[in-house]
Amino acid sequence: MAKGAKTVYFCQNCGYESSKWTGQCPACKEWNTFVEETVKPKNTQSVHTQERKPAVVSTLSQIPTDKEERTTVGIEELDRVLGGGIVPGSLILVGGDPGIGKSTLLLQVCQKLCGKGRKLLYVSGEESLQQIKMRASRIGKFTDDLSLLCETNLETIRDMIEQMKPEFVVIDSIQTMYSEEVTSAPGSVSQVREATGVLMQIAKVLGISIFIIGHVTKEGTVAGPRVLEHMVDTVLYFEGDRNLSYRILRSVKNRFGSTNEIGVFEMREEGLAEVPNPSEYMLQGRPEDASGSVVACSLEGTRPILIEIQALVCPTSFGFPRRTATGTDYNRVNLLMAVLEKRGGYNLSSCDAYVNLAGGIRMNEPAMDLGIVMAIISSFKNAPIGSDTMVFGEVGLSGEIRAVSQPEIRVAEAKKLGFSTCIIPSVCMRSVSKVKGIEIIGVKSVRDACAAIMGNKR
Asked: Do residues 298 and 367 make contact, with C-beta atoms less than 8 angstroms apart?
C-alpha cells in the first residue's frame, strides 16, 4: 500500500463512504453493496494557501433569460427525447444492455454532426480504431471533422480535449476511464465518480457537449455509484430485446426538457433507422378473428402508441392457477382479474391467464387497463373482438372506467390508422367531440364495455 494511503468502503449504489464494511448501507438501505478501495489523502495545503476568487452574487432580474441555443442532431427520434436538440455544455449519459446499440447510435450522431461541419472527438476505451472503422463503414460516409482516440487515461483525454477544443465529445465507456490520482481499479466507485466529475468540469468550463456511455447492471441500472446519474444533465436508457429489431430510447432525467418522450428505432444492417410511426410498426402481423386480441393506446409524452394486447385464458391443470404477464405489470394483471371476478362475475379463479404485449414492448400506463380486461374477457368467452376496434381507459377497483389524459390524441391516432370504433371512458366524450369520421362509444364500467364491444361485433 502506498505511503499515506488508507482503506475505505464505498457503496456501489449511492456512493456512501464508510471506514468499515457493513451489510446494509445506512444511506440507501441496500444490502451487500459495499466494496473495499484504497485511496490516498489529497494534499490540501496548497488549497488553503492559494488566494480565493471573490464570489459573485446575482439576483433573478440580473440573469439573462435568453433561450438556450440547441444543436439539432438530424435524428428526429433522438432530438425529441433530448427536448429539441443538444444544449451546449451538457453532459449526457447513455445506458443500456450490452449489444443493444449504444455505440452505434452515438456513431450515427457523430456522422450527422460532422456532416454539418461540427468538430467531434470520439474516445474509445473498449474498441480499437479498426473496430470503429468497420462499424463506421456500415453506417455510411464520415468527414474529416470526426477524430478518433483510443485512450483510457483521463489526464491524457483531458489534455487532448483542451488542445483540440471540439464541439462534441463521445466517451465509450465511462467504466473504462481511470485517473492516475485515484489508486483504485478502473470501473470502481472512486474512478467512475472522479472521471464523471472531470468530464462535467470540462463540459461546463469549455462549453463542450459530452456523451458518455455507461454499462448497466443485471437490474438494468447504470453500473457504478448512483451519484453518477445525479451529476449528469441527461440520462438516456436504450431499451429493447436483442432478439427483436426495434429499440426504444427513453429519458429518465433531463434538465433541459421533458422525461416523458421516447424514441423508437429499428436495428438494421446499416445501423439504427428511425421509426416515425411506431403504432403501425407494432400492429404488423395482427391475427384476424382471433379471441384474446385487442388494440389499446398508450401515451408516451406527446406520442400515442397503439399496441396489441394478447391474452390466453384456459382451465388450470393444477389446484393453483398460473398467471404470467409479459410487457406489463404482473401485479396489475392480478388486480384487474380480481376486479373481473368481483364486479364482472367472471369465474377466473380456476383458470390460467397469460397476458402479453405483442412486439416485446413494455408499457405500464393505466390507460392500458381496459385493453387488458377486454383481452382477458375475449379469451375467456372465446369471442373475438373486431379488428377495427380500439380501446383505452383506466379500470378502478369498483369496476368503473376512469378518465385518462389527452384522449383526443389517442382517438386521432386510431382514426389515422384506419380504426372505425373507439371504446373510451364516458367522461372523456366531451374532449373527443371534435374528432370526426370515427365511431366513439363511451362506457362507465367494465360491464358496459363488454356489452358495447359484443354488441358492436354483432
From this structure: yes
Under the banding of pLDDT at 50, 70 and 90, the label for residue 403 is very high
- The third-level CATH classification (topology) of the domain covering 281-457 is Ribosomal Protein S5; domain 2 (3.30.230)
CA distance 209 to 59: 27
C-alpha cell at 186: 478502473
The secondary structure element, H or E, covering residue 343 is none
Domain boundary assignment for the chain: 6-41, 70-276, 281-457
Radius of gyration over alpha carbons of the chain, in Å?
26
Residue position matching grid coordinates 392500458: 368
The CA distance from 239 to 97, in Å, is 7
What end-to-end distance do the CA atoms of the chain give, in Å?
Answer: 81
- Where b means 16+ CB within 10 Å and e means fewer, 364-397 reads ebbbbbbbbbbbbbbbbeeebbebbbbbbbbbee
Instruction: Give CA 46 to chain center in angstroms.
Output: 44
Cα–Cα distances in Å, from 80 out to 88, 90, 159, 274, 417?
Answer: 16, 16, 33, 12, 22
In whole angstroms, what is the distance from residue 431 CA to residue 101 CA? 40
- Overall average pLDDT of the 62-67 stretch: 73
- Chain-centre distance for alpha carbon 420: 32
Mean pLDDT computed over 378-396 = 93
- Could you give phi then psi for residue 283, rounded to 5 degrees? -90, 5
Q: What is the pLDDT of residues 337-365, one digit of tens each?
A: 999 999 988 999 889 999 999 877 888 89
> What is the rounded average pLDDT of the residues 282-286?
83
pTM score, whole prediction: 0.77
CATH of 6-41, one of 3.40.50, 2.20.28, 3.30.1460, 1.10.260: 2.20.28
What fold is seen in the domain 70-276? Rossmann fold (3.40.50)
Helices and strands in the chain: count of H runs, count of E runs: 12, 21
Q: Of 355, 359, 389, which is closest to residue 375 (Cα–Cα)?
A: 355
